[in-house]
Amino acid sequence: MMSSPLVSVIIPVYNAEKYIEQTIRSVLDQTLQDFEIIALSDGSPDGSAAIIQRLQKEDSRIYFIDKKNTGVSDTRNKGIQQAKGKYIAFLDADDVWNPDNLEKKINKVKASGRRWVFSDHEYIDENNQWLSSPERPLREDAILERLLLWEKGDVVPGPCSNIVAEKKLFDEGVQFDVHLSSPADRDISIQLAAKAEPAIVHERLWKYRIHSKSMSNQNLKVADEVIVFIRKMRKSNLFSSKRIRRRSLSNLYYMLAGYYGSNGYRLKGTKYFIRSFLFSPGNIWNKKIRPAFATKTKK
Question: Are residues 86 and 109 in contact, defined by beta-carbon separation less than 8 angstroms?
Fold first, then answer.
């Protein structure tokens, strides 16, 4: 009987034929080799499946699941259900890990006694050219509160190519919300932070790929999902105070105002801006109104 791997790497795949081989090979090239790769095609209509199946013949640690399209969150949940590792690691089908990504994260978890871990990252383009690296250091304080607030700046950068977590956390009820795709990254980070404090590796251990195609239609889809997320947050008991809850909802409505306003839906954008202001007038005064007055004064 084969022993279980230390880490299960879950890769949801949809229209990723341009990048999926590089992504999988970045896992195969890890300095820590005790893993399995679970690649799940979410009804992908392109040639991704053939590439994965070819790589399967090279390495028996690659498992391929071809399923109908149910969305990225449901696909990740199905990967978690199949995972045999002590730890779960997520990787998007177009991102890339540095060779020491898994080793440094697993060592950090073990040394710290924490149950999940993440690191910093850098940005690359569609042709693997380096674009930039975040200049701010990752903060270790108030992770859950800062995740809930949705303030500007990364708290857990790119969770779904970054996080490594004990599988037991998912056995205890953490799971991806199938009603969310883009906000699902923040949602899963909130769920994990509510269960346990994370460990942080203050190194850039992976690469997030930026695509050049327009995000206009995607923005409207994200706006719909943010509304779903707001409903979820309004029912949440994770906030440490009413003030934090109101500021969180203010920030979410402010995001909605931006999504709709930037896509030509000015009436909707104005409605959500007013709602944002009503939830936390001081928050919006400092974020938007005071800077606007300052700009006019300078002129």
Answer: no
Specify the residue for token string 């990967």. 79
Q: What is the DSSP letter of 116?
A: E
Dist CA 158 CA 32 (whole Å) = 21
206: β partners:
97
Q: What is the pLDDT of residues 121-161, one digit of tens each?
A: 999 999 989 999 888 889 999 999 999 999 877 899 999 99
User: Beta strand pairing status for 62-67 and 35-42?
Assistant: parallel
Is 263 exposed, middle or buried, given 0-12, 13-18 or 19+ CB atoms closer than 10 A? middle
The second-level CATH assignment, the architecture, of 7-209 is Alpha-Beta Complex (3.90)
Please, is 142 exposed, middle or buried when counting C-beta atoms within 10 Å of its C-beta (0-12, 13-18, 19+)? Answer: middle
Beta-strand relationship, 87-90 and 7-13: parallel
Residue 293 has pLDDT above 60, yes or no: no
Closest CA to 101 of 93, 92, 91, 111: 91
Residue closest to 15 by CA, chosen among 69, 63, 80, 91: 69
Domain boundaries, the chain: 7-209, 216-294
* SS3 state at 121: strand
